[in-house]
Amino acid sequence: MSEKTSKLSAWWIAIRPHTLPAAIAPVLVAWSISYQQEAFLLLPALAAIFCALMLQIVSNLVNDVMDFHKGADTSERQGFRRVTQSGLLTAKEVWAGAAVVILLVVIAGGYLIWLRGMWVLVIGLISILSAIAYTAGPFPLAYNGFGDLFVFIFFGFVSLCGSAFVIIGWIPAISWVMAFNMGALITAILVVNNVRDIESDRKAGRRNIPVVFGLNAAIWEYRILISIPYILLIFTVISTRQYFLLLPLLTIFKAISLIRDLDILEGAALNPVLGRTAQLVIQFGLLLALGFVLN
Distance between CA 199 and CA 76 in Å, rounded? Predict the structure, then answer.
């Protein structure tokens, strides 16, 4: 394999493509809500999904470097390959890559600021800083017990409601409920990651629910995060009579299977559970988006 091909492969690993669909899902739901409001605009919609992807990549790159430096990524880790820990890329290269991606966010965000005003600047700055501060800085969120809350707020409310705002210019009320649903499901992906990596996280001093409160607490967190979106969907349909919003219920048997598997598997055996949880997010989000379009 050539050096060029090797580098391209390393960068592909570094951006963690398996995480990107989950970043897109809330934005697609925002697209569908704006379509239902007869206010869909293509350019801001594309800019919103581009920024969501880039911010996820920034977070992934910073996480790759910082988890290695803090000792969370070692040769004993149970998860997917990390480029800094494995020597595929240097820390300097990964930081440079993160800087380039941030520049792309700034360029796309500049258009959205011009379109919607200074609130977008505030949202953008908070998003960039949060993507970095998840594992870097003087108070890394993931190492101080705020990782789950960050993912829930950022991938739910900031991503979905922020996207609705830049597309429409305001946030329809139903967006907040859908943001809760998507945020909960995406946080469930993190829970699987935390359960799988409990031993390495404990050694690295990372404080999260399985490390601080034990595996049983994390398993219950997962059950709640997976279950509540389905319950909220039913109440949403009862109150709005938008019956096509029940389409995500088609995924409920997969959700039940995932809850069962997290309870009985451990270590590297949880990697497929993590992947299937991400698939659940995508399937739930796509069916939810379709529901809005059909209603």
Answer: 10
Q: Which residues of the chain have pLDDT under 70?
A: 1-5, 71-80
What integer pLDDT is reported at residue 86 of this predicted model?
83
Which of left, alpha, beta for 16 (phi over 0: left; psi -120 to 50: alpha)? Answer: left
Residue 266 lies in a domain: yes
Residue 14: inside a domain: no
Domain that holds residue 228: 20-294
pTM as predicted? 0.91
Mean of the per-residue pLDDT values of the chain: 91
Tokens 């210019």 sit on residue: 169
